[in-house]
Specification:
single chain, alpha/beta, Protein-Tyrosine Phosphatase, Chain A, Rossmann fold, 4 domains, six-stranded parallel β-sheet, five-stranded parallel β-sheet, 18 strands
C-alpha cells in the first residue's frame, strides 16, 4: 500500500464519502517540487505555496502566529490547503479538545497533497470539510458556535473566489442565529449626505435588539457652519479643525462614561487619529462605514490604520486600495433603504399638486446633471427639479422647486411617490456618466423601497443588486430621453417593475440586512469578543451553565432573566442593592473590587 492509499484509508475511517470522492478526483493543481531541506513543496502558476527552502519551519512560524489570538472553546477553521504543513503544525500546538476544521472547495488540491504527505498521527484529529461554498458554510455553521477563521494566504489564493463565497455564506448563516445583545456607539458626522444614513443605521440596530448610543454631532452643525464667516481661509480651516477635534474628545467622553462593545462611525465622523488611537489603547473596537467614492474623497488614506474594520460601498479596486494602504479588515457593504420610512404613501391633494409631476429628479447640482437634465425640458411631460447646490441653474432654473432648498427624507418619499418616472443619475464631476461608476447611490434603494419607478444610469455593481426587470437602465446620456419617453407611456409596465424592485429591497437590501452583515463580519473576525456576545455567551443562562463550581455567583445570576446579557457592572449593581447590613461573601467582595477598578481605569481623556 503506497502513501496515497494509506492516507485515503485513514480518511475512510473518518469520512467514507470523502474517501470515495477522492478516488474519483484527479489531481494536478499543484506542481510538486523538492525544497532545499529535502521535503516536498508545491508551486502553482509560478507561485510558491510553501517555502522553497524549509516548509516545516515556515509552517511552525505560521502556527505560532495564529495561536496567539486563539481562545479556549473556539472552533478553528483553516482556509487554504496546499500540502497542509501549516495544518499539521497547528494541530500539534493545540489542546486535544480543540476542534480544527479544514475547508476544501476543490478536492484536486487534496489529492496532490495526499500523494506526497502523510496524515498519519494527526490527520484523524482534523475535520476535513469539502463541497460547494454554500454546503461548506452550512456544515461549518452547524458544527461550531464560536468560530475563528484562520487563513493560509499562499494556498487560499488558489481558490480565492470560492473561499470568498464561503466566507459570505458562513457570515450570513451565522447572522440568522444571532441572539446576543451588543452595546454599539454610533458616531455620526456633523452634516452631509452620510448623516441620514447614520440615523437609518441607528434605527436598524435598535430594531435588531441591540442597545445603541448615538453620538449625534449634527447638533453642533450650526456652530461649525457659523465658522464659515471667517474670511481668512487658513484661520477658518484651523478653527474648524479644532472644533472637530473637540467633538472627537466629546465622543471619547461618551465612550468613557458608558463603554460600548463597538464604536461604529459614519463617513466624515469627527474622530481624529489621536482619538482613535486612544480608543485602541483602551481595547475599544472601532469600525467605519465609508459611504463615499474612494477615488474622489481620499481622506481615508490618512485614517486607514485608525479603524479596526472598514466597510466600503465599492468592490475590488476600493477593497484592494484600502488593503494596500494598511487596512486590517475591509469588506464590501452597499447602501440600503429603511422601509419604515421609504415606503408607498397616500398623498393629499395639496401634496400631489406641489410635489407631483410626470418626471422629476432629486439631487445636488453636479456638472453631469446640469448638462444632461436640460434634455428633459419642453417635452410631452411635466418635469420638476428638486435639491440644493443648483445656484446658476441656467435653463433648469424654471423647473427648480423651493428655490433649491435641501429636501428632507419625509418630503423625498412624497416626491418619489408623486412622480410617474423618477430619474436617478449618479453624481459625476465630469461630463456624461462616470466611466468608473461602480457603487449604487442610496436613492436607488430608497426609490425602490417606495415602490416608485426609476430610470437609472448603469453602474457596474447594479446588476447584482437590481436587474432590468425592476428599473430602466440607461448606459449613455443619449438613451435617457427615449427611455423616459418609452416608460412614460407604459404605466402598467412601470407599476410591475416598481413592485418587483420593492420586493427585492424588502428581501435583501434594508439597513437591517446591512447591520446584520456588518456585525456578523466583525463577529467572525473577533469570535472571543463580538462573536461570543452575538451568540449569547454573555446571557445569564449561558453564564449559569459555565459557573457550576461557584454557587455564590450562580445565586446572583439567577436574579437575572435567562436571556438578559449580564456584565461585571450588572453583578456589582445587584450586590450594591442588597441590605447595607448584609454580610457579603468573598466572591461578592471580589466583584465589587473589580468593578471599582474598572471605573478607576476609565481615563480616556
Amino acid at each position: 500500500m503506497n502513501l496515497f492509499q494509506k492516507n485515503v484509508e485513514l480518511l475512510r475511517r473518518q469520512d467514507p464519502a470523502l474517501a470515495a470522492q477522492i478516488l474519483q478526483t484527479a489531481g494536478g493543481i499543484l506542481s510538486i517540487q523538492t525544497a532545499k531541506s529535502g521535503v516536498p513543496t508545491a508551486v502553482t502558476n509560478n507561485r510558491t505555496i510553501h517555502s522553497a527552502y524549509d516548509p516545516l519551519s515556515e509552517a511552525e512560524r505560521w502556527a505560532d502566529h495564529q495561536i496567539e489570538n486563539c481562545q479556549s472553546g473556539e472552533t478553528l477553521v483553516v482556509l487554504g490547503l496546499g500540502l497542509f504543513y501549516h495544518v499539521e503544525a497547528l494541530r500539534a500546538k493545540l489542546p486535544q479538545d480543540t476542534v480544527l476544521i479544514v475547508v476544501m472547495p476543490n478536492l484536486s488540491e487534496l489529492v496532490d497533497g495526499l500523494s506526497v504527505r502523510s496524515l498519519d498521527g494527526w490527520g484523524e484529529r482534523v475535520c476535513w470539510v469539502w463541497g460547494q461554498a454554500e454546503s461548506l458554510a452550512s456544515k461549518v455553521a452547524h458544527q461550531a458556535k464560536r468560530i475563528r477563521l484562520l487563513t493560509y494566504e499562499p494556498a487560499l489564493m488558489i481558490h480565492q473566489k470560492e473561499y470568498e463565497t464561503f466566507r459570505s455564506q458562513l457570515r450570513d448563516q451565522l447572522a440568522k442565529g444571532v441572539s446576543g445583545r451588543l452595546h454599539i456607539m454610533v458616531v455620526g458626522p456633523i452634516y452631509g449626505g452620510s448623516l441620514p444614513v447614520a440615523g437609518y443605521m441607528v434605527r436598524a440596530l435598535e430594531a435588531l435588539g441591540h442597545r445603541v448610543s448615538w453620538v449625534d454631532h449634527s447638533l453642533h452643525a450650526p456652530g461649525y457652519q457659523n465658522l464659515n464667516s471667517l474670511k481668512d481661509d487658513r484661520l477658518r480651516m484651523t478653527v474648524q479643525q479644532r472644533f472637530s477635534d473637540t467633538l472627537g474628545v466629546i465622543s471619547l467622553a461618551h465612550v468613557a462614561e458608558d463603554p460600548p462593545d463597538l464604536v461604529l462611525a459614519m463617513s466624515q465622523a469627527p474622530l481624529s487619529m489621536a482619538v482613535l488611537e486612544q480608543m485602541r489603547r483602551k481595547k475599544v473596537l472601532t469600525a467605519m462605514w465609508f459611504v463615499e467614492n474612494f477615488r474622489h474623497l481620499t481622506y481615508w488614506q490618512q485614517m486607514i490604520e485608525g479603524y479596526d474594520f472598514w466597510f466600503v460601498m465599492q468592490q475590488a479596486p476600493c477593497v484592494e486600495a484600502f488593503k494596500n494602504a494598511g487596512a486590517s479588515h475591509v469588506s464590501y457593504l452597499p447602501l440600503a433603504a429603511d422601509p419604515t420610512l421609504h415606503q408607498p404613501v397616500t398623498l393629499t391633494r395639496e401634496d400631489q399638486l406641489e410635489l407631483g409631476s410626470d418626471v422629476s429628479f432629486l439631487g445636488a447640482g453636479y456638472r453631469n446633471r446640469r448638462e444632461i437634465l436640460p434634455f428633459l425640458l419642453e417635452k410631452e411631460w411635466s418635469f420638476k427639479l428638486w435639491g440644493n447646490e443648483w445656484d446658476r441653474a441656467g435653463v433648469l432654473a424654471s423647473v427648480l422647486q423651493r428655490n433649491g432648498a435641501r429636501i428632507d427624507t419625509q418630503t423625498s418619499v412624497k416626491i418619489f411617490n408623486a412622480t410617474s418616472v423618477n430619474v436617478n443619475l449618479h453624481s459625476y464631476t465630469g461630463s456624461g456618466f462616470d466611466p468608473d461608476g461602480d457603487s449604487v447611490n442610496p436613492r436607488t434603494f430608497e426609490l425602490a423601497s417606495c415602490g416608485a419607478f426609476q430610470v437609472i444610469d448603469h453602474r457596474s455593481l447594479l446588476p447584482e443588486i437590481f436587474d432590468e426587470s425592476m428599473m430602466a437602465i440607461v448606459r449613455t446620456p443619449d438613451e435617457l430621453v427615449p427611455v423616459v419617453r418609452k416608460y412614460f407611456h407604459e404605466p402598467e409596465l412601470r407599476r410591475v417593475m416598481a413592485e418587483e424592485s420593492r420586493k427585492r429591497v424588502l428581501h435583501s437590501h434594508t439597513y437591517a440586512h446591512r447591520m446584520q452583515t456588518l456585525l456578523s463580519t466583525i463577529g467572525l473576525a473577533c469570535p472571543d469578543r463580538i462573536g461570543s456576545i452575538l451568540q449569547g455567551d454573555r446571557q445569564a443562562e449561558a453564564l449559569l451553565a459555565r459557573s457550576q463550581d461557584c454557587p455564590e455567583l450562580q445565586t446572583l445570576l439567577k436574579t437575572f432573566p435567562k436571556t438578559d446579557r449580564v456584565e461585571l457592572v450588572d453583578l456589582a449593581n445587584a450586590i450594591r442593592q442588597k441590605n447595607p447590613e448584609t454580610q457579603l461573601k468573598r466572591e461578592e467582595l471580589l466583584i465589587l473590587m473589580m468593578d471599582e477598578y474598572r471605573q478607576e481605569k476609565r481615563d480616556f481623556l
